[in-house]
Write a structure and sequence with these properties.
By secondary structure, the chain is of the alpha/beta class. The chain has a single domain, classed as Alpha-Beta Barrel (TIM Barrel). Helix content is about 30%, strand content about 20%. It contains eight helices and 16 strands. An eight-stranded parallel beta sheet has the order 3-16-15-10-9-8-7-4. Strands 5-6-14-11 form a four-stranded antiparallel beta sheet, with no helix packed on it. The radius of gyration is 18 Å and the shape is globular. The chain starts with 8 loop residues before the first strand and ends in a 15-residue tail after the last helix. It binds flavin mononucleotide (FMN). The site of flavin mononucleotide has 25 residues, from strand 6. Flavin mononucleotide binds next to strand 6.
Length: about 300
């Protein structure tokens, strides 16, 4: 029996002590979780999606439980990039965990401006990479073209950002497309260093007594165990087509779920909805992965990535 497993992985040139990250929007700005868990133990922290200016988000109700999941229509409520830099990031500096900022914009210029502001402070504030959200289903009303639904628009957005920042770029894909391989390849060709998938699937819920939608926004994004089979299939499909590393997510509730994602090709994984049920989920998943590796004599977690037998 081996006594130790190497859990460290590398994503977009960033060394993570283990492959477990937090999914954007389910972990606040990180600090909210520090009374409950030791943030130093996480592979990386991905913070709530940030925009150029603060956003109040959508009208309530904004989260609804569904069978095996939740629907959310938060509408990217956030404090804006300036406040993130001044009020949140300095307090995260003391943790020995890389910070990844999830970025959303209405225009290419907005994306670039946010990325440049973050790059300026990145060394001082331990921002190691940017996760570019080209996939939020909740800001469509403002005319956002939802870049991630079109291969050419994805290429255009990612290549423009690439030219304007030297920080590693992780592109977060939407599952609400016909051909995810095409979009993934466009992002890779445009200079992405890694891909995150999947974001939420668009859905709705109905109150039959009121004859009304349950969400204020009518539609929302479905997450949690209900989407895991779709997420696994998409990671597997994308793994066949790209060389850059994949961060897998969608319904990961425990270590066995996380390992499924690694077998279909994810080099790291993100824990999302599970954080809302149990703030300790990510740490329990790290322990569970380690236990599995020890029991199965796996010396290095990287040995597992993409080794599904088909
Ligand atoms: C309440 C909530 C807020 C979210 N906010 C964001 C966000 O700001 N940016 C983003 O890229 N994804 C956001 N997501 C999507 C998650 O990061 C993740 O991709 C998705 O929920 C699938 O993972 P899960 O099933 O483990 O939750 C959000 C998800 C939830 C549930």
């Amino acid at each position: 029996m081996i006594s130790q497993t190497k859990l460290a992985v590398e994503i977009a040139g960033i060394k993570l002590k283990n492959p477990v990250m937090t999914a954007s929007g389910t972990f606040g700005y990180g600090l909210e979780f520090s009374p409950f868990i030791d943030l130093n133990r996480l592979g990386a922290m991905v913070l709530k999606g940030i925009t150029l200016r603060p956003r109040p988000g959508n009208s309530t109700p904004r989260i609804i439980e569904t069978s095996s999941g939740i629907l959310n229509a938060i509408g990217l409520q956030n404090i804006g990039v300036e406040a993130l830099i001044k009020e949140k990031l300095p307090s995260l500096k003391k943790f020995n965990t890389p910070i990844i900022i999830n970025v959303s914009g209405n225009t290419i210029e907005e994306y670039i401006e946010i990325c440049q502001k973050l790059e300026e402070v990145s060394k001082d504030l331990k921002v190691v990479a940017l996760e570019i959200n080209i996939s939020c289903p909740n800001i469509l009303k403002e005319g956002n073209p939802l870049w991630g639904k079109d291969a050419k628009a994805t290429y255009q957005l990612v290549s423009r950002i690439r030219k304007n920042t030297s920080l590693p770029l992780i592109i977060k894909l939407t599952p609400n497309v016909t051909d995810i391989q095409e979009i993934a390849q466009s992002a890779e060709e445009a200079g992405a260093d890694a891909l995150s998938l999947i974001n939420t699937l668009v859905g709705m819920a109905v109150d039959i007594d009121l004859r009304k939608p349950k969400l204020g926004n009518i539609s929302g994004g479905l997450s949690g165990p209900a989407i895991k089979p779709i997420a696994l299939w998409m990671v597997w499909q994308v793994f066949q087509k790209v060389k850059i590393p994949i961060i897998g997510m969608g319904g990961i509730m425990n270590a066995r779920d996380a390992l499924e994602f690694m077998l279909v090709g994810a080099r790291a994984i993100s824990v999302g909805t599970a954080n809302l049920i149990n703030p300790n989920s990510a740490l329990e998943i790290i322990e569970g992965i380690e236990d599995f590796c020890l029991k199965n004599e796996i010396k290095d977690i990287n040995e597992l990535v993409g080794t599904l037998k088909v």
